[in-house]
Amino acid sequence: MKMTVKRFSLEYDAVNGKNVFTNGDTVNGRIILQFSKDSKVRALVLFATGGARVEWHVDEEAFCLNEKYYNIKHYILQESREDVPVVIGKGRHVFPFSFKFPDRTISTSFKFEHGRALHELRVQLKQPKTRSRWITTVINFVSKPNVNIPRLMEPQDVSQVKTFRFGSGSVRMNVYLEHKAYKQGEALRVTLRVNNLSSRILRPRFVLCSKLVVYAQINEPHKILTERSSVVKPYRMETVTKVFSIPDNLTPSNLNCSLVKLEYWMKVYLDTPFAKSPTVKLPIVLLPSFDVPTTERSPASAAAALETFESRFQTQRIVQQASPLPEEPPPAYEACVVDPTGPPAYSC
């Protein structure tokens, strides 16, 4: 009996507005078959697979690595032990199914030039005396954040002191972030305090960066957002606050795959002419915008950290005000030039 398939499709229900699944979520869907007449089916099989793969080259040799997370096979229709096919009548037939993602560490979906992590649903339709038909649907999966990351929701406060050469002084910079974890679309507020005890002009710069770390190689950092601020003049103290709006479509941090990791950080530096710029880097964990269980933020601890940050800066201000500043600028270069035909000059 020749089978005529008018429709063979796979559908599943979204669990949120972005149609994104995470660990422990259940996928509810249906397989739709429509025949023009009574037909024989040997098997209707559902496959749920998840895994990652990376590829790279060394000289002229190609290498690859694979990582499997799950591989589930479920028979929705199956012929009897006597190899007798199942007969399905003419018309439209709906076969519901349910699949639950493992509630363990697995990678977020990603795809780039040298690798990918895919979560797929595939359906195979077997029928006598004909080739099998396949349907494949890719599911967008975002792994739950690792709540065991130290101080995920605690404030970050990092300082650095740099002394310039040739006795031109030093600079102290303090950078403050409210916490380490941020969601897609959330406002990221970074505060910089600069205590410029030097004769140099400093130009604060703020850069939100990402880096894709692939097995056996590291891609160059990528600048996502940049901000500039007005200069900090010599022997001055300044406070600069910048607010970055994290893009909604920015891929969340991927820290659960041993083959590929996607990392973010905030880089703050003082652009200094003719010298190495003082730089502070603060790690950032980017979370998906849909609700996932994370460690609750502690407003009290954040407020206490900010108060400590500000009080330390005020102490620096008092010390600087108590320190004598140069009463007058150094003499001009022309005043220090020695005329080889005249008497020596000692004005410098």
From TrEMBL:
Q: Which domain of life is it from?
A: Eukaryota
Q: Which GO terms describe its cellular component?
A: cytoplasm; plasma membrane
Q: Which residues form the Arrestin C-terminal-like domain?
A: 167-289
Q: Which Pfam families match?
A: Arrestin_C (PF02752), Arrestin_N (PF00339)
Provide one Gene Ontology biological process annotation.
protein transport
Q: Which InterPro entries match?
A: Arrestin-like_C (IPR014752), Arrestin-like_N (IPR011021), Arrestin_C-like (IPR011022), Arrestin_domain-protein (IPR050357), Ig_E-set (IPR014756)
Similarity-based family: Belongs to the arrestin family.
What name does the UniProt record give this protein? Arrestin domain-containing protein 3-like
> Which organism encodes this protein?
Takifugu rubripes
